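Incident review: delayed structure delivery

Summary: a single-chain prediction request sat in the queue longer than the usual turnaround. Root cause was a stuck worker, restarted by the on-call engineer. No data loss occurred. The affected request and its eventual output are reproduced below so the record is complete for anyone auditing the incident later.

Affected input:
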Amino acid sequence: MNEKVRQTVWRWRDTDPAEPEHPVREAPGRILSSGLPGLVVGAVLWFLGWRWPGGIVMGSSLAFVLVGLVAPSIRRQATDFLGRLGAWTGRLLGVILLTPVFLLVVVPVGLYLKAAGRDPLHRRPLPPGLTYWIPRRSRPEPEQYRRQFLVEDPQSRALERPVEEAAE
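Output delivered after worker restart:
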């Protein structure tokens, strides 16, 4: 590819994507609206009698808005930091909360179903000579084609179909 064409079409090697050529200034309305939820939550806490938490939430939200209006680069850095902190916290809480839920709910239910001989996902291997195709007992109506995955014949799952019949 011609060097001139390459520079005209896509100059991805020239600039760092993290640093735009022309920094974009965020609109003041967007900055103000980003602080509005914090002010509302703080006001609700304040009027419910929780003066300290309400004051802290309103004060931090107001400070965040003022910093965004005066120094957008500092606000952007704070937003990036809080985003990384939130992602890290989410991963940590996911492991801390979901591991016990899995061990206390999913594993016992699975063991119960296995002990009861139930196989709701139909994963049990079929005897040789049978196919895994689920036979259709009746021809579907044209209206059912619009809702293909909402219409099922549960009794047909219990039917067994020989391989020779499926090959036809």
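Verification: Helices lie at 3-9, 28-47, 51-70, 72-116, 163-167.
Action items: add queue-age alerting; document worker restart procedure.
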